Amino acid sequence: xSFEDPVIIVALDFAGARGALxxxxxxxxxQCRVKVGLELFCAxxxxxxxxxxxxxxxxxxxxxxxxxxxxxxxxxxRAAELGVWMVNVHALGGPRMLxxxxxxxxxxxxxxxxxxxxxxxxxxxxxxxxxxxxxxRVRSLARSCHEAGLDGVVCSGREASDLQDLRTGxxxxxxxxxxxxxxxxxxxxxxxxxxxxxxxxADYLVIGRPVTGAPDPxxxxxxxxxxxxxxxxxxxxxxxxxx
Length: 243
Description:
The protein has about 240 residues and is of the alpha/beta class. It has 11 helices and 8 strands. An 8-stranded parallel beta barrel has the order 1-2-3-4-5-6-7-8, surrounded by 5 helices. Helix 4 runs parallel beside helix 5. The radius of gyration is 17 Å and the shape is globular. The model has no long low-confidence stretch (mean pLDDT about 90).
């Protein structure tokens, strides 16, 4: 099974290249993309991105840039030079930072998405941070990203259904914290299953430990793809129902 535009992004949350590349070699780049986050990038830098690209993977560079507009713009420009598929910034950086980041990505460069509220935050933690209700804050930040011309946002699948009206011009929704049926939530708080996230309107699903921590990552990915295919079949069937 393969996808022209793979739905699943496997998070390679490893301490070094050995673990990340070992996991990647067990996966099929026609079936998924991979995500390089802070720990792995700080340990290995650009060479691990190039190594993954050499294996045929498109890379989501998940560094969540959040700084003054000039600094974030320069960081986005450097990320684009790595040839990554997607890069992200924190939407809380504000409109000027988002606009500067957008201008720094060249035409044909990586997709630029804004992180709204981390899926590790519970509603109580979001309130304690002074951000108000999670859903309202996510929608406000997503609107700022849309207005700044970003390509999409990172949000919980639980909030994806409330953002469907923003999905004009290819605006995409990337949902982390996705767990296959029966998987542990780990340190995530606002999680969803694969079928729930797709039903909510998510475009890309970030899945980490349920795949990379499995005894057989390829088999775990295959099971996730089966869930994606089943969810797609249910959606197609629903769309064909007579009014």
